[in-house]
Amino acid sequence: MDETGLYLRDMRAEAPLIHNITNFVAMNIMANVLLAAGASPAMVHAREEAAEFAALARALTVNIGTIDPAWAEAMLDCAGVMADLGRPWVFDPVGVGATRFRQDLSVRLLDLRPTVVRGNASEILALAGLGGGGRGVDAGDSVAAAETAARALALRTGSVVAVSGPVDFVTDGSRALRVANGHALMPKVTALGCSLNGVIAAFCVGHPAPEATAAALAFYGLAGEVAGQGAQGPGSFQVAFLDALHALTPEAVSAGAKVTVA
Amino acid sequence: MDETGLYLRDMRAEAPLIHNITNFVAMNIMANVLLAAGASPAMVHAREEAAEFAALARALTVNIGTIDPAWAEAMLDCAGVMADLGRPWVFDPVGVGATRFRQDLSVRLLDLRPTVVRGNASEILALAGLGGGGRGVDAGDSVAAAETAARALALRTGSVVAVSGPVDFVTDGSRALRVANGHALMPKVTALGCSLNGVIAAFCVGHPAPEATAAALAFYGLAGEVAGQGAQGPGSFQVAFLDALHALTPEAVSAGAKVTVA
Amino acid sequence: MDETGLYLRDMRAEAPLIHNITNFVAMNIMANVLLAAGASPAMVHAREEAAEFAALARALTVNIGTIDPAWAEAMLDCAGVMADLGRPWVFDPVGVGATRFRQDLSVRLLDLRPTVVRGNASEILALAGLGGGGRGVDAGDSVAAAETAARALALRTGSVVAVSGPVDFVTDGSRALRVANGHALMPKVTALGCSLNGVIAAFCVGHPAPEATAAALAFYGLAGEVAGQGAQGPGSFQVAFLDALHALTPEAVSAGAKVTVA
Q: pLDDT digits over A117-175, tens only?
């Protein structure tokens, strides 16, 4: 079996507890995605307990989609815990180009050296300080245009940077991988990108981040391909996607993964 | 083609960014409804950034279902931005009859002249100062009983007022339209009314509010009719409803719309 | 007809307004569960209005899954209202073993004598002060191990205590019931346990809590059994589960309930 499926097998064997401080739109579907994939999700955000909880988790995800100042501080607390403990954490800079508040928080989060930064092309460009303002959460720029920015951001921060798009791009600044799995209906279901952060975090537990990230993207995109076979639209696609995350075997993932060196 | 479908066609051609400050129950389904229909949703509520974000959006929706004082201030900020910029914004006075806090906030929001006010009969009656207390978010009063209140409210505020029910009623105070599309399972799926606000806002971008609102109601109700054909209950109805929002063509909407002058 | 179905029949006849202060992950699915089952859900949490709203509701549920200090105070306010009015309220101590903040709040909520406390084995053990720390929201301990703790907790608090698991256990400290309905996919859909709290609360309106709780568990588990017959995975299971909650008749519930005296 090629490596991709092994990451899924290992993740399911441990069912790691993944702590998520994410946006309100994503919370339910993200928890369902993680359960279907085989991980154990938890959402905890109050500063009175978030850092204490983070220390119990194997990995953390931080998503700034619907931040406010109190949540921002909890994100920083928890990211600091994970950085101190050497555990993986994933940062999703949703809509970072849209407001100054997001930009300021993102700078502070980047200082805590996320294991993985995942966003669309506009977000990665904005984060790297190279792009113009995106419009909200859409990907107004192509993945290709963001590749240079992704490499520079990875070198500067020490993070693995993943750019989501029709073909995903993953880099640690020197090496790079492309993942060609996915389906056109995925952007038509809200928060599937946000939910992916949790799967990346779960795959990174105990594994090298660039390969684990690419494996998570391949597994996720492959579930999209399976779901797309019978879907009538975004409603039935979402249902079939959760079923596929649950049903896919490590062997099927290894056979279907389209990961190549960039 | 009759006008109803043209509103859908225009909306999809632009895929307008719709900023929503809505309740926690509605957020995920509302984003999925807007994506399926063809718009671009975003949810942003922190006062530190909400007004800045609103200025990037083509339209705004405000829903007081799960308000707290901080969110209330952000709603007022953003509604003020839209009023100043002359962009459409939709106000949904969820459960306004239930508490004094909701009534006070609703008065302040009405002062900012929403483009459209949409609610059930009890909510519109409470808002117009004519009705008794509703019990939470249910429609304890009939649409017919609310029509006089709706006309008065529209005249007083300058808003288009839409009363949701088995047959919807839309008025700007002088003219009025009825929309007879819909399905009996729609009230059995939570937040479909809340999600409709976003579709109304998207249809109002660049179009006159009374006609755009009626067209949005017809499109939405027609998707319900399509979904109801194969649904086994509220679970499968919701799935089919998202598929139908995505699949309906402008031509099908024009053919199936049941909009009449009241 | 045996009693179990009668609880469902009575609940649907009244469609009681159930006030829920629950976690962000659960809100949408919980509202859909309550609508499908035949109750009227509402989510209200701001301290400026929550107690006023609680007084309009027939029952309350409190769930500490994603608490913060402001929500905690609203929970205490509303639980106090229900205790004063003699109306049922259900407490779900999600992840109580994980942090000190949850433990302190849970002690204060228990002082307000919940009608029903529902949790998994780890949570009930932690709450009774007998168990070690759970890891987040998982059930690391068996239901059997929690039975002694449940009886002690019930005697100490005066609450009915329900332990969820493959076979549920319900006790008021002296008597006890077991409910053997359910399906293996239920823990693979997020927040189905949280949503169950609302159904328990709705069944408790006007009925004795131990029997009503067992009836709610049987109805809920039976819907899971129906859903499991055609489900391809957790996505299609959730859809079919909502359909089944809506379609199950009181007669079918009485025929399929597996409630026994422990």
A: 999 999 999 999 854 444 444 555 677 779 999 999 999 999 999 999 999 999 999 99
Token pair recorded at residue B158: 């300058």
> How far is the alpha carbon of C27 from chain B, nearest alpha carbon, in Å?
5
Question: Mean pLDDT throughout C128-136?
Answer: 55
Give the three-class secondary structure for B11. helix
Measured distance CA(C11)–CA(B113) in Å, rounded: 41
| Strand partners of residue B260 | B178
Mean pLDDT of A54-76: 98
Distance of CA B9 to the CA centre of its chain: 19
The interface predicted TM-score of the complex, written ipTM, equals 0.95
Strands of the B259-261 sheet, one edge to the other: B40-43, B17-21, B59-63, B89-92, B116-120, B160-164, B168-171, B176-179, B259-261
Q: Which two tokens stand for residue B245?
A: 């929002």
How many domains, chain C?
Answer: 1
Query: Subunits that touch chain B (at least 3 Cβ pairs < 8 angstroms)?
Result: A, C
CATH of the domain at A108: 3.40.1190.20
Mean pLDDT for the stretch of residues A190-200: 98
Nearest to residue A119, comparing CAs of A37, A35, A217, A6?
A217
* 3-state helix/strand/coil string of B27-58: HHHHHHHHHHHCCEEEECCCCCCHHHHHCCCC
Range of the domain at A231: 3-261
| Distance of alpha carbon B88 from alpha carbon B7, whole angstroms | 15
d(CA B202, CA A137): 17
Q: How many pairs of residues across A and B have Cβ atoms under 8 Å apart?
A: 103
The answer on pLDDT for C54 being more than 80 is yes
CB of C255 closer than 8 Å to CB of C237: no
Tens of pLDDT, residues B12-65 = 999 999 999 999 999 999 999 999 999 999 999 999 999 999 999 999 999 999
Give chain C positions within 8 Å (CB) of A239.
235-236, 238-239
pLDDT band, residue A1 (cuts 50/70/90): low
